[in-house]
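It would be a great kindness if you could assist me with a short task in structural biology. The matter concerns a single protein, recorded as an amino acid sequence and a row of backbone structure tokens. The record follows directly beneath this note:
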Amino acid sequence: MITRRTALASAVAPAFLQAAPARPNVIFILTDDQGYGDLSLTGNPHLKTPSMDAVAQQGVQFTRFHVMPVCSPTRSCLMTGRYNYRTGVVDTYLGRSMMHSGEVTVAESLAGAGYQTGIFGKWHLGDNYPLRAIDQGFQTALTLRGGGLAQPASPPNTGYFDPPLELNGRTAVRKGYCSDIFFDEAMQFIEKNRRRPFFTYIAANAPHTPLQLKEEWAEPYRKAGLDDTTARIYGMIANLDSNLGRLMEQLRRLRLDQNTLLWFMTDNGPQQKRFNAGLRGLKTSPYEGGIRVPSFLRWPAKIQPGTKDNRIAAHIDFLPTVLDACGAPLPKDRKIDGRSLFAPPVERSLFFQWHRGDAPEMFRNCAVLTDRWKLVGTDKHQPELYDLPADPAEEHNLAAAEPGIARQLRSQYDTWFRDVSAERGYDPPRIFVGTPHENPVILSRQDWRGPQASWNADGLGHYEIDVRTAAEYEVTLRFPPIPQETRALLTCGALRQEVAVPAGATQAVLSKVVLPQGPANIEGSFEIAGRRVGAHYIELRAGK
């Protein structure tokens, strides 16, 4: 039998100063690829993060908080309180990071309880109806497309400055640096809704690559002798910390700071090697360096400052904890995997997994976590067992020395994997075309699928769509300049339509394309040097 160590059994829930006050406002700040060691609070010898540290010092620090090894899976767990494999999200791109629209998000639950809901930044759970943030409970949504700026979902030749964004589904270019913009817009949302309860989700895309920033932020770290990559990352985090400080000052000025639940965390471990507080592994890894992250919750009206909560906790606990704090009920028609962190701790196992591919493989790149033990399934499906309190760096594999514990944890994993896989399977949700909610529909390589689908310039893939209205569409295929005269080809089910494309062109327009109602796979391509290459974007406009 797996037993808990006495020191871990003494973990306590956050201390309460008084009975729950009126419903709190909620601000959730999630940064992108910031590791456990990327704060001064966790021992970083170069980076100073006074505002992030203050959230922990003035509230509760969850010292053993874990997430998935990469971002979209973590985000679906956060939004739903459910393991991402239940939601349809298995990866970060190629149509594998779209969350089924039937999932109930924390924003939907809070909106139903009378909250004003807003997201500012990275959604990464679907770019098209009915999968966008505005389709999943956010009344105000200023978001980037796909998994980040300067990626295939964004328009060409754009980046972190004057970024291409969408406000409630419509193009919205903002001037300035992306992180500053997200905080500015979130603070305007807070000011506007200061007299009614609000849920504000600031989902920064920093310090994710590409490492674009104002050089003044990176310069102090270059002068400290750090390499350029690390200096840029630390500069991006310092900028985020400065913006967090501005936000906290606004809350004090508006007299909202006492009854605002402010939760700060990150979505996975660091992408690049740097200081990570002695933890093993990076982003994409099921070792602690890939899945253990800083997670701090500040709520002065309720939580004793300086509290440390040492129980294991995870992304799936976010929704239950927030709904508990706000007096909003949990969704009743589905399994919620997480539990409120305001409730007393219980003995449980937590599960983590990620790897590339359209569907997960059993016991590949995964972990089972208990208060004491951690079973890792490597990328080669091999078991490793670690006694985390005694071996936080995961240096001593005890699978051979403790076969009974390894077998018990593997049995728990197998049961979990079958359970989450059986709920809906791994067919992706389809993108709706021909609705009043989105016209035109713009498809990007973020969501195409198929054996040749990739982010490479010469990739080829299809999109799984559901045509809700049979009608004529104007279809525009967009691509880099064509080096030679060719023909563009559009296929959708039995439909096949071509148009001539001159050398140097960057788009091809097909008019009066009749798309029949129902599910179909659509593909746009052209032939170059005997090879078929996919269009980088497909725009479908109804009514033309």
Summary: The CA atoms of residues 27 and 262 lie 5 Å apart. Residues 1-12, 14-18 have pLDDT under 50 and may be disordered. The longest helix spans residues 228-253. The first strand starts at residue 25 and ends at 31.
